[in-house]
């Protein structure tokens, strides 16, 4: 399958304040994501972890400070406007994109267990069509329920999720 969305070395920093009173937050730090046609990926993390910033950069709606975003191999923002759909409200799920070419769907909609079957079906339908779906979620339980690959956004970096019952070390038997 072809690469639908490729993000390499993405960095985004927010600066606020006036004069000598400034605050800086490095929200995304060298983020790498590869999403193929027909694939869904969930990015999980608590509120304020940078999920929406990542989604907006992936949609071409927010410029990154560094790094590169490619939509179906094209890094021009015009490609994002043509091939990426940012879904922020449930009504946005009615937009499917122009027929004839695959799209990247960026799902930044608050999800709960209510109505989840409809969202699950929507994601499956998009993937079956050959589209790619990137999902932002507060909870790993929702993301894993969707049956998709999951990455965790912590301290501005993406990580594989830590298994709940992970063991750091076991005592060697002699």
Give the tags:
4 helices, 20% helix, 174 residues, three-stranded antiparallel β-sheet, globular, 38% strand, disordered C terminus, six-stranded mixed β-sheet, alpha/beta
Explain what the structure shows.
The chain is α/β, with parallel strands linked by helices and 174 residues long. It has helices at 51-58, 77-83, 116-129, 140-145; strands at residues 3-18, 21-36, 40-44, 66-71, 84-87, 104-107, 132-137, 149-154, 157-159. It has a six-stranded mixed β-sheet, sandwiched between helices. β8 (149-154) and β9 form a beta hairpin. The model is unreliable at 170-174 (pLDDT under 50).
Structural class: alpha/beta
Estimate what percentage of residues fall within beta strands: 35-45%
In the sheet with the most strands, the strands line up as 5-6-7-3-8-9
Low-pLDDT stretches: 170-174
Number of helices: 4
Euclidean distance between termini CA atoms: 49 Å
Number of β-strand runs: 9
Which value, in Å, is the CA radius of gyration?
A: 17 Å
Residue-averaged pLDDT: 86
Cα shape: globular
Largest sheet: 6 strands, mixed
Helix content: 10-25%
What is the H-and-E element order?
A: EEEHEHEEHEHEE
